[in-house]
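pls design
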């Protein structure tokens, strides 16, 4: 029996080291509680968040539904926003200047998550405003 997307994400997170698991779970709840049209799944071998609402047709290679994906390598928590360059991030939360338009956020520990929670919420809310419905 195939698990639901949420169950797959939960299973993936449960396999992480306890400290990393707590960070990921905290960030996960922040993002999922922003809007009911945000859901999660495993994509690119990591938990990711995507928009579930109606959208204008687009080329799937543009990843317009993808809000953010975790990158959980080497004991750190990075959140990658594939189209982060489009977001008006006045807080400076999003880092990097990648040609493909992605931007990243690195979370070091729980206090760092708490410090970045409001700007993270604002980035996701701004991202949702850019959705072409």
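designed seq:
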């Amino acid at each position: 029996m195939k698990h639901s997307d949420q169950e797959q994400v939960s299973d993936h997170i449960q396999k992480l080291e306890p400290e990393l698991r707590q960070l990921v779970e905290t960030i996960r709840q922040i993002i999922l509680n922003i809007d009911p049209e945000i859901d999660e799944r495993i994509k690119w071998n990591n938990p990711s968040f995507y928009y579930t609402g109606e959208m204008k047709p687009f080329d799937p290679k543009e990843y317009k539904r993808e809000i953010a994906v975790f990158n959980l390598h080497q004991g750190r928590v990075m959140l990658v926003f594939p189209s982060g360059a489009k977001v008006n991030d006045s807080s400076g939360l999003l880092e990097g200047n990648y040609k493909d338009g992605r931007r990243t956020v690195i979370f070091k520990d729980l206090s760092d998550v708490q410090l970045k929670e409001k700007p993270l919420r604002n980035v996701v809310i701004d991202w949702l405003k850019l959705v072409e419905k």
